[in-house]
Each structure stands twice: as C-alpha cells, then as structure tokens.
Amino acid sequence: MDRNINWYSMPIGLQIYNIGSEVSRAIRWKNAANYQRQLNFAIKAIELIGLTKSDPKNVKRFDELNFYQQELIDFLFGENMYENTDESIMKTYDQWEHMALDI
Length: 103
Hints:
This protein has helices at 2-8, 12-31, 35-54, 62-77, 86-94, 97-101. By secondary structure, it is mostly helical.
C-alpha cells in the first residue's frame, strides 16, 4: 500500500516519465535480444501504467493511459499493429518530460 501512496503523490507527468524509464529499458533489452530482461522491465512498466490508471487524480486520463498500455504490449509482444518504432514509443513518454522536470 505504501508504494501506491507514494506513486499517487507524484504528479502525472512524473508518473509517466518514470514509466518511460522502464519502457526505455525494455526496448534496450529487446534490441539486445535478452527476452527475460525485456520482459522484466516491460512488466514493471505495465504495472506502473496500471497504478497510474488507478490513481484517482488521473480518472479523466483513463482512456489515454489504457491506450499507452495496449500500445506498449502490442509493440513489445504483439504484432505491432500500430506500426510503432522504438522512437515513436519513446516519444509518447518523452513528451511528459517537461512536466516531470517542472516540479
């Protein structure tokens, strides 16, 4: 529960910026063909998106966060039906950097 409280105390920009760090690590290990490490970091990112979706202050962003989650799963483990690249996935998370660093 403490983890949730700490996570919930962060502004959404910082939450998503932190998720992006895990996504970046998952992509790095995907490109290094280390599936187990890719999986570990991807699971962490997906869990953090789930926490962000459950944060009461983000209720109006639920659909957006849900799409981020679906898009990430599709990119790392699916058919990549959204035709993403490493760069396009990271752009999703990097756009929040200014909000995270303006704290």
